[in-house]
Amino acid sequence: MAHLISTSCSVSVPSRSQFCSKEQSFVGAKVSFASFSSRICGLPSKKLIHRQDRSQRVCTIHATTLPLTEEGGDGYCGWATALHLSKKGYEVAIVDNLVRRNFDQQLGLDSLTPIVSIHNRIRRWKSITGKTIELYIGDVCDFEFLSETFKSFEPTAVVHFGEQRSAPYSMIDRSRAVYTQHNNVIGTINVLFAIKEYSEECHLVKLGTMGEYGTPNIDIEEGYITINHNGRSDTLPYPKQASSFYHLSKVHDSNNIAFTCKAWGIRATDLNQGVVYGVRTDETDMHEELYNRFDYDGVFGTALNRFCVQAAVGHPLTVYGKGGQTRGYLDIRDTVQCVELAIANPAQQGEFRVFNQFTEQFSVNELAALVTKAGAKLGIDVKTISVPNPRVEAEEHYYNAKHTKLIELGLQPHLLSDSLLDSVLNVAVKFKDRVDTKQIMPSVSWKKIGVKPKTIAA
């Protein structure tokens, strides 16, 4: 049986005994999801321990109350992943400092879907499935805490979701830019040192972002590119063109992980994820207290989710600038599937593996057209407006990114069909009375970021 620890920094750690041979994957796993601050416990990590080698146990990582992690075991991707892995036979522990909920309070935001406390979420999951998810409240940027967690849990895999994940949030003001970089970069370094010191065979599964690549005028490869220059050839890391302090933190993470794989022999998989949409998974649909969060505001909401909410309340779809910005997208159900595949097929010792984690590419204008069509089927008259782009980015560009490695491992994508879009729109319609329309328009400008702390206007 394998143990998985998940922190709010999105770290999954399988136990040492998971790796019985190069070909053999784990039979089962214990998973612990936690917030990632200064310790590995704060990251959603997974411990994988082969059942024949040791009994199941849960390891949790505690973290301090520093505002370090936003997307961990209690977050959008982390919660869905924790339930999915628990259902698959992992024993899960969530380590989270719950700072994501604090961000909502600070900025006057709220999830479209009502979400109960993490304690009630976990109790409901056990009452339905009989499976226990342990909870440890703490911060992974606290290395002392992280160390104790590693020593007690002996993880074999860590899924690292525990990072501040919003580009707009990182561009509000100086303090949030610094917070984002400190939380994300230091937290990841702490995890790397914990693996080196306490669990050398541990596989790090790190949630990266397609935003590291930017929008180059050539095809985007999966992590590496072969270059011929002055008669010589080499395969090098694909050039990075980050477009916010958040995306820059991810670039720093990738460089630090690549270095430690080379220097210390760490095994790591970097999941460069595209834009995630949707809210439902098989597990979160089991009870209303298991609902995932659904962000629609201009700080944390992603494009398709925001458009569906705007359509539901009769607000014109807010296309930034020309609307030609093209990105990779994937369903939340594919996010959890990709993490599971990465854990089941670990990187080799010393290998820094990069997967581009998305299933389809759309421009903002294409998304708006799809939502308009889906709205018409439901009797909703959807309008579209162009608003000044708050970001500094190309609004018309070439974009062709490769994404074959996860497919080769067995990913079965949930593509954005009419029925799926109808489902997301129906969720938005169901909870439209919870929408705060004052939060729909963009409120953070890349060019107006300043020194003084800002509060988003109510």
Automatic annotation (TrEMBL):
CDD domains: SQD1_like_SDR_e. Residues 72-356 form the NAD-dependent epimerase/dehydratase domain. InterPro entries: Epimerase_deHydtase, NAD(P)-bd_dom_sf. Belongs to the NAD(P)-dependent epimerase/dehydratase family. This is UDP-sulfoquinovose synthase, chloroplastic.
